Amino acid sequence: MSKNQKIMVQGSEITVVAINEQDFISLTDIARYKTDDTSAVIGNWMRNRNTIEFLGIWESLYNQDFKPIEFEGFKKQAGLNAFTLSPQKWINKTNAIGIIAKSGRYGGTYAHKDIAFKFASWISVEFELYIVKEFQRLKEIEQKQFGWTVKRELAKINYRIHTDSIKENLIPPELSKQQVNLVYASEADILNMALFGKTAKQWRDENPDEKGNIRDFANVSQLVCLANLENLNAHLIQQNLPQAERLKLLNNTAIQQMRLLTQDNRIKKLEEED
C-alpha cells in the first residue's frame, strides 16, 4: 500500500491510497460518517443482495481470476436472516480484488473508487456527492503536481545537455551539403530539417494517411531538443546569420543533444509513461 492521502468530506477525513496504480478509498472512514461501529455497517452493506450483485459484476469486468461459482453461492444466500458477509470472507472465497482488508497502521477496509462511491451512496446520497467532488479535486491537484515534476525533470535534463557526453544512439543523420544549401521560407521548416531531416510537406507527402503534422509524432527526446533549437535559432537570427549557416549549426546541435537525450533514464521513463 502506498503513502496515503486525505480528503475532507463534510467534516470527515477520508483516506485515499494508490494500490497497483488504482485509487482505493477507505470504506472504514466512510462508514465512520454514520457510526463508530464501522465493521457492522460495512457488513450490513455487503450482505445486501444488490451489493453482492454489484460487487460480482465489477469483479467479472476487471478480475480475470474472480470465482463466479462462489459468487453465485453468496447471491443465493443473500436475504436470509442467518447470512453474513465480511470483506475478508468475500475476498478469500471469491478471490476478489475490488475490496482490500488491511491491518496495521493504515488498517481498515479499502475499496476501488467505483465500489467506494457505491458504498457512500448507501450511507448517504448527499455524502456520496461530496466525496466525488473532493476526490476529483484531489485528482486535479495531482495532475498539476505531475506537470510541475515533468518541468523540473526537463530542466535538469536540459542542463546536462551542456555538460555531458554519451554514446550515440538514435541520432539524427548529418545533413548533406545539398540539404544545408537549401533555403526554406519557413523558419519552422529550418527546425524540422535540422532535427528530422525533412520539411513538414515532405513528411505529409510520405505519410498521407496520418492526421496531424511531423511534430505531433515526435517523442519526448525530440520535443525537448526542438524546444532548445527554437531558442538557439532565435539567438542566431539576432546575430543576422544566413539561413543556410543557421541550419548547419542547428543540425549539429540536434545531433549533439540527441546523443544525450536518447540515453537519459529520466527521458526514457517519460516516454514509457507517455
Low-confidence regions:
161-171
SS elements, strand count: 5
Overall 3D geometry?
Answer: elongated
The structural domain count equals 2
- The strands making up the biggest β-sheet line up spatially as 1-2-3-5-4
Q: pLDDT average, as an integer?
A: 81
Give a short account of the largest sheet: 5 strands, antiparallel
In DSSP terms, counting alpha (H) and pi (I) runs of 4 or more, how many helices?
13
Can you write the helix and strand succession as a string?
EEEHHHHHEEHHHHHHHH
Portion of residues within helices = 55-70%
Radius of gyration: 28 Å
Distance between the termini: 24 Å
- The structure class reads alpha+beta
Relative strand content = 5-15%
Descriptive notes:
- 60% of the residues lie in helices and 10% in strands.
- It has 13 helices and five strands.
- The chain has helices at 27-32, 38-46, 49-62, 68-77, 87-94, 113-123, 125-161, 177-181, 187-196, 200-206, 220-238, 243-261, 265-273; strands at residues 5-9, 12-19, 22-26, 99-102, 108-112.
- Helix 3 (49-62) packs antiparallel against helix 4, helix 9 packs across helix 12 and helix 11 packs antiparallel against helix 12 (243-261).
- The chain is elongated, with a radius of gyration of 28 Å.
